[in-house]
């Protein structure tokens, strides 16, 4: 069963309070997502560290029920 956008968004926001999350369905199948995450926790972190924080927020769902997630991350401007 694929993960819904609101479920992914909620998991990210729970782990990264104050984050802004913008979800986009890439294939129209609720299985391939693009997420833009802007979070204050990303300040001073490398892109790799930021992505790791998001994957950790998804609690092992990547590669399982969540097949594809294209990530864009940045600290707030």
From TrEMBL:
Domain of life from the UniProt record: Bacteria
A Pfam family reported for this protein in Swiss-Prot or TrEMBL: BolA
InterPro entries: BolA (IPR002634), BolA-like_sf (IPR036065), BolA/IbaG_stress_morph_reg (IPR050961)
PANTHER family: BOLA TRANSCRIPTION REGULATOR (PTHR46229), BOLA-LIKE PROTEIN 1 (PTHR46229:SF2)
Protein family membership: Belongs to the BolA/IbaG family.
Name of the featured protein: BolA family transcriptional regulator
UniProt organism field: Alteriqipengyuania lutimaris
Source lineage: Bacteria, Pseudomonadati, Pseudomonadota, Alphaproteobacteria, Sphingomonadales
């Amino acid at each position: 069963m694929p993960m819904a956008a609101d479920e992914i968004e909620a998991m990210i926001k729970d782990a990264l309070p104050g984050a802004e999350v913008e979800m986009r369905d890439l294939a129209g199948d609720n299985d391939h997502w693009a997420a833009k995450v802007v979070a204050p926790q990303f300040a001073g972190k490398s892109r790799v560290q930021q992505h790791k924080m998001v994957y950790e927020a998804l609690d092992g769902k990547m590669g399982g029920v969540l097949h594809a997630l294209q990530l864009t991350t940045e600290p707030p401007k």
